[in-house]
What we know:
This protein is an alpha+beta fold and 203 residues long. The chain has one domain. The chain has helices at residues 2-15, 45-56, 59-62, 114-128, 165-169, 176-201, and strands at 21-22, 73-82, 85-92, 97-101, 107-108, 135-136, 147-154, 157-164. It is globular and about 50 Å long.
Amino acid sequence: MRTTLLTIMGLFSLLSGTRAKDEETPAPAPAPSAAPEPADAKPEDAGRELRKKILSQTAKDLGIAPSPEFPRIYGVLVEWPLGKTTATILSMSTGAASLYTTSSYGIIGGEPHERVAGAAKAAVRAADKHFDAAKPVKEFPYPAAGRVNFYLLGFDGVRMLETDLAGIEDESSPYVHLFYQGQNVLGQLRLVAEKKDQEQGKK
């Protein structure tokens, strides 16, 4: 419980930033061409659109094929609400990882960083253990207040798990380990973003 609360507090600190931090390109393969961005697009819509895209694309679209290490799923999204903001942590079998939010803050990429890539792959492996319990879905709502959603990106389609945040905090949820794997990815992304800020500050 203490680890979860500390991580959530850390994310609140991240969300208080005044600008979005863009890391390396997250996609393992070129994405299908998208329509031009509307002139009135808002910064806070960027995370929503990236989330929508990854949930609507297929493994074939991304150039990802099943492997002995990842035979059933190639990615997982862990998301939960923080006040009026919802955070989504994306982990991919390629090692790519991103933080999307419904605010203007996000961290995109992480794949070139060994620790981020290792954490992302570990999260996908953890998600695969819950494959049979996850239900196939065609719609992808954000979690309600006090809830946590897990979207498993399967080679046969998207599957979903959900639980109470309270069950994560008191470690009674069967998905607590998967949630912590997502938190580890977030922690590694934070370190990359903070290091980049420090390097830019020295220039």
